[in-house]
């Protein structure tokens, strides 16, 4: 059996020929540079770069994952849920409308730039299908059945469930705020999910776990910063939302960092190579974000 295989394939260039349009917030501010024609560059992708004999490393770590990583899951009954942070729709209509009105009043102090970043964060959370797909490309740790009892898979499903509520909560709050063009956001979500994510982890769990630990740290910082800014702008409810999500991200970062530390212990050479690889090539999850008009939307964010 070949120890390492590489494949090279080209993703067909995608050309959209749409009329020039602009994105606006409800306060009328134009966001981003939009182009009538967008071209997605061809990308070289490496697959299955981990030698097959390394699969044994991840197999041997399964008991350790059960004992040391699964505890990073919070029991569902003790977990927060999005509805705790949102206007209560199950009360009478007057009370619900009053809570929505108060929400819309609170967000008035937040800038358009804040909302652009909040929407980008929300879209990042809502690309969960892509993120779980990428996790399940990793050799030796993927969920082989969709409900596997392998500890790596038990962890990945629990992690995905927590990420799912981040997107649910942010999306609903943004929708109720009335500050953004939801149709445009929803189209962007569709384009972005179709584009996927090319994070260059090569089906290689060493690369995948280093990437995840860095990525969770980045999301911890961004949600934490958004919490601070919301508080300063007079929306303590949104500050609590972003702070609560940031706390989940910190726990995720701790889990993935612990996995990388264990890999450094059992296989320092391969793990150091993965750290060097990811350190120089980190790709943000939304790097292929597109609204159907701007192929370089991520770089053009204000
Ligand atoms: Fe998240
Ligand atoms: Fe996370």
TrEMBL record:
<keyword id="KW-0276">Fatty acid metabolism</keyword>
<dbReference type="InterPro" id="IPR009078">
    <property type="entry name" value="Ferritin-like_SF"/>
</dbReference>
<feature type="binding site">
    <location>
        <position position="249"/>
    </location>
    <ligand>
        <name>Fe cation 2</name>
    </ligand>
</feature>
<comment type="similarity">
    <text>Belongs to the fatty acid desaturase type 2 family.</text>
</comment>
<dbReference type="InterPro" id="IPR012348">
    <property type="entry name" value="RNR-like"/>
</dbReference>
<feature type="binding site">
    <location>
        <position position="125"/>
    </location>
    <ligand>
        <name>Fe cation 1</name>
    </ligand>
</feature>
<keyword id="KW-0275">Fatty acid biosynthesis</keyword>
<feature type="binding site">
    <location>
        <position position="163"/>
    </location>
    <ligand>
        <name>Fe cation 2</name>
    </ligand>
</feature>
<dbReference type="InterPro" id="IPR005067">
    <property type="entry name" value="Fatty_acid_desaturase-2"/>
</dbReference>
<keyword id="KW-0443">Lipid metabolism</keyword>
<keyword id="KW-0479">Metal-binding</keyword>
<keyword id="KW-0809">Transit peptide</keyword>
<keyword id="KW-0560">Oxidoreductase</keyword>
<feature type="binding site">
    <location>
        <position position="252"/>
    </location>
    <ligand>
        <name>Fe cation 2</name>
    </ligand>
</feature>
<dbReference type="GO" id="GO:0045300">
    <property type="term" value="F:stearoyl-[ACP] desaturase activity"/>
</dbReference>
<keyword id="KW-0408">Iron</keyword>
<dbReference type="GO" id="GO:0006633">
    <property type="term" value="P:fatty acid biosynthetic process"/>
</dbReference>
<feature type="binding site">
    <location>
        <position position="166"/>
    </location>
    <ligand>
        <name>Fe cation 1</name>
    </ligand>
</feature>
<feature type="binding site">
    <location>
        <position position="216"/>
    </location>
    <ligand>
        <name>Fe cation 2</name>
    </ligand>
</feature>
<feature type="binding site">
    <location>
        <position position="163"/>
    </location>
    <ligand>
        <name>Fe cation 1</name>
    </ligand>
</feature>
<feature type="binding site">
    <location>
        <position position="249"/>
    </location>
    <ligand>
        <name>Fe cation 1</name>
    </ligand>
</feature>
<dbReference type="GO" id="GO:0009570">
    <property type="term" value="C:chloroplast stroma"/>
</dbReference>
<keyword id="KW-0444">Lipid biosynthesis</keyword>
<protein>
    <recommendedName>
        <fullName>Acyl-[acyl-carrier-protein] desaturase</fullName>
    </recommendedName>
</protein>
<dbReference type="Pfam" id="PF03405">
    <property type="entry name" value="FA_desaturase_2"/>
</dbReference>
<dbReference type="GO" id="GO:0046872">
    <property type="term" value="F:metal ion binding"/>
</dbReference>
């Amino acid at each position: 059996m070949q120890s390492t295989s590489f494949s090279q394939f080209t993703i067909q260039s995608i050309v959209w020929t749409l009329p020039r349009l602009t994105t606006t917030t409800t306060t009328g501010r134009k966001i981003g540079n939009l182009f009538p024609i967008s071209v997605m560059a061809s990308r070289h992708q490496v697959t299955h770069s981990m030698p097959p004999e390394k699969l044994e490393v991840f197999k041997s770590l399964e008991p350790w994952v059960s004992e040391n990583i699964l505890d990073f899951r919070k029991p569902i009954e003790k977990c927060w849920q999005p509805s705790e942070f949102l206007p209560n729709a199950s009360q009478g209509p007057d009370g619900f409308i009053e809570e929505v009105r108060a929400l819309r009043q609170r967000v008035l102090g937040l800038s358009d730039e804040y909302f652009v970043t909040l929407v980008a964060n929300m879209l990042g959370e809502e690309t969960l299908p892509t993120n779980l797909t990428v996790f399940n490309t990793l050799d030796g740790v993927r969920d082989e059945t969709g409900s596997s009892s392998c500890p790596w898979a038990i962890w990945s499903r629990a992690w995905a469930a927590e990420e799912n509520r981040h997107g649910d909560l942010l999306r609903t709050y943004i929708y109720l705020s009335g500050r953004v063009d939801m149709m445009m956001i929803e189209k962007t979500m569709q384009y972005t999910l179709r584009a996927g994510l090319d994070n260059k982890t090569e089906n290689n769990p060493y690369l995948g776990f280093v990437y995840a630990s860095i990525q969770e740290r980045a999301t911890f910082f961004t949600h934490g910063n958004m919490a601070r800014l919301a508080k300063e702008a007079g929306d303590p409810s949104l500050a609590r939302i972003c702070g609560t999500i940031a706390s989940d991200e910190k726990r995720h970062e701790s889990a993935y960092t612990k996995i990388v530390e264990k890999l450094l212990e059992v296989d320092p050479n391969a793990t150091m190579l993965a750290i060097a690889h990811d350190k120089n090539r980190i790709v943000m999850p939304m790097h292929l974000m597109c609204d159907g008009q701007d192929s370089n939307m991520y770089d053009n964010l204000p």
